[in-house]
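### Sample
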Amino acid sequence: MLTSLSIHNYALINQLSIDFSSGLSIITGETGAGKSILLGALGLVLGNRADLSSLKDTSKKCIVEAKVAISNYNLKDFFEEVDLDYEDITILRREILPSGKSRAFVNDTPVNLSILNQLRSQLIDVHSQHQTMELSDVNFQFSVLDALAKNTSKVASYKRGVQQLNVLKKELENLETTQREVNLQHDYNLHLFTELEDANLQAAEQEELESKLEKLNNIEDIKLNLSEALDISVNEQSGIQNLLQTLENRLSKIAPFSKEYQEISERITSVKIEVDDIIGELETANENVEFNPNEAEEINYRLQLLYNLQKKHYVNSNEELLTILETLSEKVSLVENADATINQKKKEIESVSEKLDKVALKISASRKKVIKNLKSELEELLSELGMENARFSINIKPTKTYFSNGKDELEFLFSANKGGNFGELKKVASGGELSRIMLAVKKVLSENIQLPTIIFDEIDTGVSGEVSNKIAAIMQQMSKHMQVISITHLPQVAAKGNNHYKVYKKEVNRITTTNLKLLTIEERIVEIAEMLSGKEISETALTHAKELLN
């Protein structure tokens, strides 16, 4: 329930803070006093769009803050889902800066307007004659039936199933589309795949083959230079090996005489060891140099195959060819396994559909059970509200279509006159009739589910006498189950409130402001008397006001 509302610098309001209580609260005031401003401010903190025109003083920011007791609304999961701190007394705040920028907060955490709008539907329900057109919306009609049928958990389960079914259908559609596209290229892809697979590609093969071929193409130069290098190294008279041996012998003889000679001798020995090792490798390399024309031809053939494949696929390496091979393998495999995959997906769809059908049947059966009582209660209430001949025709028709809330089509028709034809509410009911129908619907709902705070904005316009008394009585009964706030011009309704607030204008320093105050018993008598007789309050009006309050 709404526990308090604070408004600063909004429209005609400088500063206003008011506390609300449970039960039935009444708001009255002269036309133009600012009742719509209060609703506008409340709408702002609940997520309505705003602009600079909302600011009374455009040099200061506008702040609207509402405190709402939410312990009975089962909102902990929602708060966790949107990552907000849950508090039993939750504070909603909206700020509009002079720059026009708007900010919103829930328990001091910044939020976007979509979060406020989601909370709005669960916290405060505002109804005016304009908003009673919601009665003609089939989703609202279904929500009434489902609320009475206690279908909340079943509908939630069904919706999860529909989401799963839609995902599976989309996956099947994508599989079938992909299969059609791939089938068109399957033969060509299979040819390309087989060609690459038969080539037995190795990642580093090309570089190795090119190196071997380079050696074979220069075999004569290699052989000549290796031979000459060996001759230079091992010639008995002038070879490097023999010269190093002589040098080592000479230095070894003087090494004992000085540390300096010892170090030079050791370095020459190291060089000789390295040279001996190199000469050994030169001898091995020279012995292994053979020209094999067949090997060169085979390498040339293999390299040409690789070059042709790379040119065909517009790449420059075996690594890229192997990537293409993997992609082609997936495409070929997809076609070869497509039927099995598609059939498996169809089985999943069939399984989910069967489960959904069972849930939809339960939802439909529950709806049908409550229709008779709903019709009876609505017609009885409307009769008390001056619509003695009001009749409803509510029918459920099962279909094969998976709608968002079940598989039913709903026919919700109305007739206001005896012997009249049934028709859609928006076509056959007047604005005043829709207001009373909405009141009756909300009355029935309030006795079956936990409704949020409801605000009736002059929903009793155009009625008087005994009907207004009955409207007041219905609101009083509803207030036993929920918080009800009624903005009214009818004294009969105003007298039934547990609390009575008055909206009024006041001029201070030639500036008009809107104010709201909770009336005392004496002030309330005067207000109701004024509603009965106008500004000139008579003793009769005061007496009547006291009678109404009693």
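The radius of gyration is 46 Å. This sample (DNA repair protein RecN) is used throughout the tutorial notebook.
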